[in-house]
Specification:
single chain, 945 residues, mainly beta, Maltoporin, Chain A, five-stranded mixed sheet, 51 strands, 47% strand, Beta-barrel_TonB_sf
Length: 945
């Protein structure tokens, strides 16, 4: 231990503080101290390079977080910690209920979680079918530190390292036993979280073994228990944004004389006119944060077979049980709902109209069943329950080859990983059986088990209503889905110094890798057949392999001259040969210029490559029901200046805010190619001990970006132009959107640029030791170019500073933390700042109960509605400002004994509410960027012996 060095002091200070709130504690903080101790420190790999070196500052910007940093966040998932770093964009997490699946991912630069590569101890961690890694399954208790490279690194690591690399380093050479327990809860008395873990380690001169067991349980919160999420659209009139699938039912049909009836059940068997305020408030019956239970087993061992050869083995098993909960199934039928061949028979004993109502008749035709919706309260909640098993094994050899005075480090590794997910979904309906139960009563009677369905009767509560258990038994089913993805690879690497140049030793790293990935998604047979009341989808199955070689060199150019203490050139290139894409070569050039002991200037240019994931390539088409605003609502007359609305009947009214949208993979996708450019400096002035400043500019351009255009963007572009993306929309004769294809395509491109900064200052006083850390990211540009696959027309705009559904792009995010340590006490205070954004805010000139336009009452920058000469209503676009806000977190720790430490903390200390959003899918705030309302209190106990 270098007890007298600045490096040792820095490390001890970091361990004492934990830098709870540094979220992005820069490796630059100790750069100067590290170099002063370089002669005593062994060579190590730093993320971004395979070359071992003593200088921890390379040409790449790398952020480091220690194990103690992570513990003091008061969060049970390492994924949630990483989502809070300023360079991270919106990503899925356990606060995503409708559309979530229990995973938490990391999305560096906000350009897609599958463009961030995740490593554990420098080895690729297995992704799921989507190409993204579920960070929930990596227990925080095994982590020593996390290195986050905010730069492209395909030349070093291969595919997926487009925006950055997260490298999780586990505990090494641990001796003894450590254990911890954690309990937390919101001030509302819900959302309980607990975590328990224990680890054992044995080490000697020849090797070490470490074993860890961890358990995490997170309980849900309900949307109805928070004011902002208890209604479909916060602040809107009763019924706005609600569902036409109500417990009493809505029925829009034409009688045998083609007279229109838009009615609802009055709750007593009669029919009364439908009004918008009657729409069903489904929000309180949904989860706001989702529950899950995780059990993880981790082991690693290393043993020196000889002085120069060691064997190493790592094994991981994790099980996650998670679920999402939605309100009972809304059963929609009719040609506006997209069904085909459904007839409510006149002789159905519960049909009060006495008519054969069929969806085969068009809008305005006699006996047309245009739209009918009934909330199947008697069937209970829709629950989506995942049971995920993940296994990963890494095993191999490493050692040192001595040739003359030089040492060459080598390793050879085999990796096998398997992720299997089984999903059970309750509350779904078999639509073929629904059609039989609503149809001719004699046909139903002749069908085994068929019972006429009381579609027109009402329901009063969950599990209570006029639909009997016998009716449910015939039409209801539990879906059973299965998915799997596997990763297998062989790799070999060698690195070392070749010969000495005037400015230092030329060093290199080279390697080979062969990797196979395969997977499948097998939905339930009824879902695959498309006869479910929920989202149907087709099976997914596919595989690919890749063979790669790479070379990396570090060339010292100049040293020890005026204004150039050291100037190094870093070069890397990687050749990849894919079984389904052909071959590609990606290279990198980096320059590191240490002007003097205080100032380091650095820059890199790199090419990146990403092969589309198994899901992107082979995902079968599936349905979703996004909440969308049809710009053609009101028909051609109301949208005279919208070419895409031509020919739509004037009587057209969007019947349901949720429009069936088809998404799916595309086997013809081409790989993504990217270029990234970063440059900046590190300043650690000798005159101010403990101060470090870093500043890095980034610019990433992705070509052939794989993504969807976006359902709302497709509707709006078609309405505005009359051509762009119109081929992706199908409408029936009544104007209703019956199909909208939002599948994956290679877009024209995607770019993002901006800068990162970090200011860290450590200082000692008689009142204790302090650390101040200010970390931030500014986004200047994030642009996507969308090209119509039919017309070739394109649209693009800079989305920086804007908010979209589960994609919030604040121009600035910063984290400012102050940490104090004195004797046995520590305290931490963190401010997490999220910059303001602007979102589209259109309510189609709907009015509240007082007759005021919702755009005027809800949108912060409402459009001005005016009547044109022809009597049509025109309005400029409305916008809504999501103001800048900050979360404040605080914690206090006390070391009771040398081996026992207690920590108490509260996240969101000042009870800040998330910014209200009208574009996000649910809850009126975006869970990919903001947290659910409420203070979260937690306590932790750590024991080491």
């Amino acid at each position: 231990m270098f007890t007298n060095s600045k490096l040792a002091k820095s490390v001890r200070l970091a361990c004492a503080f934990g830098a709870v709130s540094t979220i992005g504690f820069s490796g630059a903080v100790a750069a100067q101290e590290a170099e002063e101790a370089a002669d005593s420190v062994e060579k190590i790999e730093v993320t971004g390079s395979r070359i071992r070196r003593t200088d921890i500052e390379g040409a790449n910007p790398v952020t480091v977080m220690t194990r103690v940093d992570i513990e003091k966040f008061g969060i049970t998932s390492i994924g949630d910690v990483l989502q809070a770093i300023p360079s991270a964009g919106s990503a899925i997490n356990t606060n995503n209920n409708n559309g979530g699946n229990g995973t938490t991912t990391i999305n560096i630069r906000g350009i897609g979680s599958n463009r961030t590569l995740v490593l554990v101890n420098g080895k690729r961690w297995a992704p799921g079918l989507t190409g993204s890694v579920d960070l929930n399954n990596i227990p925080s208790s095994i982590i020593e530190r996390i290195e986050v490279l905010k730069d492209g690194a395909s030349a070093v690591y291969g595919s997926d390292a487009v925006a950055g690399v997260v490298n999780i380093i586990t505990r090494q050479d641990f001796e003894g036993v450590h254990a911890s327990g954690y309990l937390g809860q919101y001030d509302e008395g819900d959302g309980n979280k607990e975590s328990w873990d224990i680890g054992f380690g044995v080490a000697n001169d020849r090797g070490n073994v470490y074993f860890n067991v961890s358990y995490v349980e997170e309980e849900p919160t309900f949307a109805g228990d928070r004011e902002i999420s208890a209604v479909p659209v916060f602040g809107a009139p009763t019924g706005y944004g609600g569902s036409s699938g109500t417990p009493n039912g809505r029925f829009w049909y034409f009688d045998d004389e083609a007279t229109s009836f838009n009615v609802q059940n009055d709750g007593q068997g009669g029919l009364i006119p439908w009004t918008g305020s009657s729409a069903f408030n489904f929000a309180p019956l949904n989860y706001l944060s989702t529950p899950q239970e995780r059990i993880n087993l981790y082991s690693q061992g290393r043993y020196e077979l000889t002085d120069n050869v060691s064997v190493n083995v790592t094994g991981f098993y994790g099980n996650r049980r998670s679920s999402q909960l939605l309100a009972p199934t809304p059963l929609f039928i009719g040609n506006a709902a997209g069904t085909s061949g459904v007839t409510i028979a006149a002789n159905n004993p519960y049909n009060p109209t006495g008519l054969d109502l069929t969806d085969t008749a068009g809008f305005g035709e006699a006996n047309s069943l245009f739209f009918a919706g009934r909330r199947m309260m008697e069937a209970g909640y829709r629950e989506f329950a995942q049971n995920v098993d993940q296994f990963q094994f890494n095993g191999g050899f490493d050692g040192v080859i001595e040739l003359g005075d030089q040492e060459y480090y080598w390793d050879a590794t085999y990796t096998y990983a398997d992720i299997t997910q089984n999903t059970l979904t309750d509350g779904l309906l078999n639509m073929d059986r629904v059609a039989l139960a609503l149809g001719d009563v004699d046909t139903c009677a002749a069908t085994d088990g068929c019972v006429p369905l009381n579609f027109f009767g009402g329901a009063t509560a969950i599990g209570e209503g006029t639909i009997t258990q016998e009716m449910l038994d015939y039409i209801q089913f539990t879906a059973q889905d299965a998915a799997n993805s596997t990763l297998e690879s062989y790799s070999a690497n060698i690195s070392g110094e070749v010969f000495e140049l005037p400015a230092g030793y030329l060093a290199f790293a080279a390697g080979y890798e062969k990797r196979w990935q395969s997977g499948y998604d097998q939905p339930d047979a009824l879902i695959a057949a498309g006869i479910t009341s929920g989202n149907s989808r087709q099976p997914t199955s596919g595989s690919f392999s890749v063979e790669e070689v790479y070379l990396e060199v570090a060339i010292p150019l100049i040293s020890d001259v005026e204004f150039i203490e050291q100037l190094d050139l870093e070069l890397a290139t990687r050749y990849s040969d894919y079984s389904n894409f052909g071959d590609t070569t990606n290279s990198k050039v980096g320059l590191k210029w240490r002007i003097n002991e205080d100032v380091l200037v650095r820059g890199t240019w790199s090419e990146a490559f990403r092969a589309p994931s198994l899901s992107e390539l082979f995902l079968g088409n599936s349905d979703s029901f996004a909440t969308l605003i049809d710009p053609c609502n009101g028909g051609e007359a109301a949208n005279a200046n919208s070419p895409g609305c031509a020919g739509i009947p004037a009587a057209y009214e969007q019947p349901n805010p949720q429009i069936r949208t088809t998404v799916g993979g595309n086997a013809d996708l081409a790989p993504e190619e990217a270029e990234s450019f970063t440059y900046g400096f590190v300043y650690s002035p000798a005159q101010v001990e403990g101060l470090s400043i870093t500043f890095d500019v980034f610019d990433i351009e992705v070509d052939n970006a794989v993504s969807t255009v976006g359902a709302q963007r497709i509707l709006d572009a078609c309405a505005t132009t009359g051509t762009t993306f119109c081929s992706l929309i199908e409408r029936n004769s009544g104007g209703v959107v019956t199909e909208l294809f939002n599948g994956l395509v290679n877009l024209g491109g995607q770019t993002t640029s901006g800068f990162d900064y970090n200011v860290a200052y450590n200082f000692d006083t008689e009142y204790g030791d302090f650390r101040v850390n200010w970390d931030g990211t500014y986004v200047d540009e994030r642009t996507s170019i969308f090209v119509d696959p039919v017309t070739g027309e394109s649209i693009s705009e800079n989305d920086a500073g804007k908010a979209f559904d589960r994609d919030v792009i604040p121009r600035i995010r910063t984290n400012l933390s102050v940490t104090w340590a004195y004797e046995d006490w520590t305290a931490n205070y963190l401010v997490r700042f999220i910059g303001g954004t602007t979102e589209a805010c259109s309510f189609d000139d709907d009015t509240d109960d007082a007759g005021n336009y919702l755009e005027d009452t809800l949108c912060s920058d409402p459009g001005v509605s005016v009547f044109a000469e022809d009597g049509s209503l025109e309005s400029k676009d409305s916008f809504n400002e999501l103001d800048a806000m900050a979360y404040h977190d605080a914690s206090v720790g006390y070391s009771v004994t040398e081996n026992l430490r207690l920590t108490f903390g509260v996240n969101n200390l000042w009870d800040a509410d998330p910014e209200i959003s009208y574009t996000t899918f649910a809850n009126s705030f975006d869970p990919s960027m903001y947290e659910i309302p409420g203070r979260f209190f937690y306590g932790r106990i750590n024991v080491d012996f």
